[in-house]
Amino acid sequence: MNDARPALDLHALARDIKRWGQELGFDRVGIAKPNLAVDEARLLQWLRRGFHGEMAYMARHGVKRARPQRLLAGTLRVISVRLNYRPPGIEPDARVLQDARRAFIARYALGRDYHKLMRKRLQRLAHRIEATAGPFGYRALVDSAPVLEKALARDAGLGWIGKHTLLLSREAGSYFFLGELFTDLPLPPSAPSSEHCGSCRACLNICPTGAIVGPYQLDARRCISYLTIEHQGSIPESLRPLIGNRVFGCDDCQAVCPWNKFARPTDEADFRPRHGLDTAALTALMRWDEAEFLERTAGSAIHRLGHVRWLRNLAVALGNSPCDEAARDVLRARSQHPSALVREHVAWALARQSDKS
């Protein structure tokens, strides 16, 4: 940390940082104080209830997630940034979900992974700040360390945390990524956002598995995003029929949110769908061997899922699809897969297909 900085007009610097951030391509920039005591208490209660499921890292990091100073000693402020990701011109979610022979993939994962893109921009923002303020302590983060990023973004004025536990903005809905630049600069903070969910319960009512157990309370163990992305093992049989054709994540609570009528499509070419993943048939995806999976998902959020869990998720979706010989053919082709996890879900899917015939 540098304690011998020249005198700075911190208010002017804060205004410049917000402008520079938008010039670099971020849709909104704000500044927060790293005071998250209330959010820390909520996090600990969530962990005590076991709502984190198999995400042991959530418990392992504990209060560190709510204490930015433990990630960067001397942190005084957090510069929070927002970047829209919903691609323009894609079909409405409901239309894809209603076509049970097609795969639904969470909109954020249709294009290239966002981590490197945002981290590079945050680094460039830090360099701009340094050119004006001189050397300073900072750390750029995009899902790369334990951070309560939604709480920090709320305090930076980028939105409020909705009843579905996602960040919401009146001018941009919720289809955006978040990133942070921790800094030891004592910048003037932005005004925190107020809440605007009111009495609406649309997200609670739409959740296919009832994972939103109450306003602002998410039981990840029932969440389709958790089950299809974070969960390593067998998906509970009782929840499989509720997953439908969602093979990577779930956007139902976002799609139904009234504020997302204000969501703005992204201008980022990297976030546009690749390899037809926004319209792909389940049977076509099930035919991908491991080499093809790795090639077609390279540089995407789907890549880290791995081929085995990809097949697991597709098997569940095919079990939920209409009785179809093509579906049964691709399932049979995987019935002797080396992975017991794949074989189990394929057997379940074939039994479901047989019950419909």
TrEMBL record:
GO terms for cellular component: cytoplasm. Binds 2 [4Fe-4S] clusters per monomer. GO terms for molecular function: 4 iron, 4 sulfur cluster binding; cobalamin binding; epoxyqueuosine reductase activity; metal ion binding. It catalyses: epoxyqueuosine(34) in tRNA + AH2 = queuosine(34) in tRNA + A + H2O. GO terms for biological process: tRNA queuosine(34) biosynthetic process. It comes from the Bacteria. It is found in: Cytoplasm. Keywords: 4Fe-4S, Cobalamin, Cobalt, Cytoplasm, Iron, Iron-sulfur, Metal-binding, Oxidoreductase, Queuosine biosynthesis, tRNA processing. Pathway: tRNA modification; tRNA-queuosine biosynthesis. The keyword Iron applies. Residues 187-217 form the 4Fe-4S ferredoxin-type domain. InterPro entries: 4Fe4S_Fe-S-bd (IPR017896), 4Fe4S_Fe_S_CS (IPR017900), QueG (IPR004453), QueG_DUF1730 (IPR013542). Cob(II)alamin binds at R65, D143, L167, L178, S225, C250, D251. Its EC number is 1.17.99.6. [4Fe-4S] cluster 2 binds at C207, C223, C250, C253. [4Fe-4S] cluster 1 binds at C197, C200, C203, C257. The active site is at D143 (proton donor). It holds the Pfam family QueG_DUF1730. It is an enzyme of class 1 (oxidoreductase). Monomer. Catalyzes the conversion of epoxyqueuosine (oQ) to queuosine (Q), which is a hypermodified base found in the wobble positions of tRNA(Asp), tRNA(Asn), tRNA(His) and tRNA(Tyr). Belongs to the QueG family. This is Epoxyqueuosine reductase. It comes from Nitrococcus mobilis Nb-231. The lineage of its organism: Bacteria, Pseudomonadati, Pseudomonadota, Gammaproteobacteria, Chromatiales. The gene is queG.
